[in-house]
Amino acid sequence: MVEIVSELQELIANPQETPDVELKSWVNLSDNLAKAKIAKHLASLANHGGGYLIFGFSDDGTPSTPRPDDLSSYNRDIIAGIVESYLDPPFHCDVVTIERIEDGNLYPIIRVPTHGAAPICTKRGGPHDDHGNAQGIRKGVYYTRGPGPKSIPIDSPELWQPIIRRCVLNEREAIVTSISHLLQRPASDQRVEKDEILKWHESSHERYAELLEQSEQEWPVSIADNHYQLSYAISELGGETIHNLDDFKVVHQRSNEAVKNDVWTGWSMFHPFTTPELAPYVLVDDMGKINAELLETNLLSKTGSLPDFWRLSMDGRATIIRPYREDLETIEIGDDVPLEPGSFLSPRTLVRELYELSAHAREISRSFHHAQTIHFMCSWWGLAGRIIRDFDPGVHWHPYTCHAPGRTVRVIATPDELVTDLPRIACALASPVLILFDGFKILPSWVETIAPSFRSL
């Protein structure tokens, strides 16, 4: 079995408290004071824009002791109960337990989503001390992350500003929907935009081909002959761009976290690793509307990672190139003939990744207030001879076969469609590929049915 270091394992490899990450030592989650303190951290992380609460570490990042023998109390129901009891509006947190490679121990991680159209307020206080004062959390208070970092009450306009902005962005879609039909772009502009996404798509692929040739990446089949590329470009009025690199990194981080509400497998597209050898680096964007910077990540030949390559520009263009996950290793499927690398394509994996791409475009487009359309361009190489199968032996497909070497697909969507109709967009991107397999067809209703499984953590 190939061992891959997931983005969650990176969090606990060398844990550090940041505005997005709160470390907590082991606590008794049946204790009301402990629950109150946890509620405060959950509220502050949500109002900060989302983040992680990690148990089992001291503030300095060292594993805390004594370590409990039973971690079963660190579960989704307990955390949901804390949220429901103390916070309004309530929200859903993901709770996962991850093995830390460094010591082989398990650590619970809570992923806290960002707030919605309203910030999170406390609706009750913690248990009272001998003087009648609430401990751990106070009723009617809005918390966020402050210097330290630590969870603090919001008591200044500066702390409210980013929260109000996110609230407005979360309400923006309703306003855009009501006027979107009044803001149609001329057909000539559409042609220019198609040329721009084509140039971005092709130049990024040329860059990838150069890096692949220079790398010593080992893979069961030829990556040069078996990979796919997923790109999009946001088209908006006025040539809007994010001018500040630090702001762009924040947009990138926030978008990545928001996408996990739709797709979360432990290996996200465009994930901004913080480990130096995996972290995004900055290049000059020679193709952009301004001579600005872009972020690029090259994971070819990186130990413990999947060999992804991706780029994000400050004017709303993105591309990611990957070898097929189906080619990672031989898949044993009971008494059937094993699935060898390069032999199959999983419709569920294909649709899930296109769904994730569409969700990422939706989140990035939120920072472009005049976004009109999103142009998707996706290409697949090395399809000939593959059959339709699935990683899950319990999912049975007829072994339809592809006879075409590959395909490029283009789809145009509006920001409103990305908000309301991800299944249809993912289906529109996937269908031209799957139909190459002896006419295999899917429907948006099927995508909608399986979408809840895209959050496998």
How would you explain this protein's 3D organization?
Strand 7 and strand 8 form a beta hairpin. The protein has ten helices and 17 strands. About 3% of the residues have low confidence. It has a seven-stranded antiparallel β-sheet with strand order 10-11-12-13-9-15-17, with helices on both faces. The protein has a four-stranded mixed β-sheet with strand order 1-2-5-4. It is globular, with a radius of gyration of 23 Å. With 457 residues, the protein is an alpha+beta fold.
What about the largest sheet?
A: 7 strands, antiparallel
The chain-level mean pLDDT equals 88
Strand order of the largest sheet: 10-11-12-13-9-15-17
Number of strands: 17
Q: Which secondary structure elements does this structure contain, and how are they paired or packed?
A:
Layout: H1 7-13, E1 21-24, H2 32-48, E2 51-55, H3 76-86, E3 87-88, E4 94-99, E5 106-112, E6 121-122, E7 143-146, E8 150-153, H4 157-179, H5 187-214, E9 227-236, H6 245-259, E10 281-284, E11 293-298, E12 309-313, E13 317-323, E14 344-345, H7 347-365, E15 371-381, E16 387-388, E17 406-413, H8 415-420, H9 422-434, H10 444-450
Parallel strand pairs: 1-2, 14-16
Antiparallel strand pairs: 2-5, 3-6, 4-5, 7-8, 9-13, 9-15, 10-11, 11-12, 12-13, 15-17
